[in-house]
Specification:
Blueprint lengths: L2 H12 L2 H38 L10 H13 L4
Length: 81
Amino acid sequence: MTQIRAKTLELLDSLSDEKLIYVFNILQNLEAFSRSEERQDKHSADDAFSTLMKYSRSLPEDFDYKAELEAAREERYGSFN
């Protein structure tokens, strides 16, 4: 058992039943919040992936990415040369 767990259990043992109710409620809320946050993160990642996949398309066979990249660089940074 870790030191923090041992100290926490000592503190809980020293509390009255009335105060333990508050601690119990806090722990329940914390656990529920953690679960809800995990579900939301997974849901957000799924939504983001779905949105990204809506924009995916195949490029034409004759697409020259090097020429496109060079044209974009020239357009954006051409004035620096």
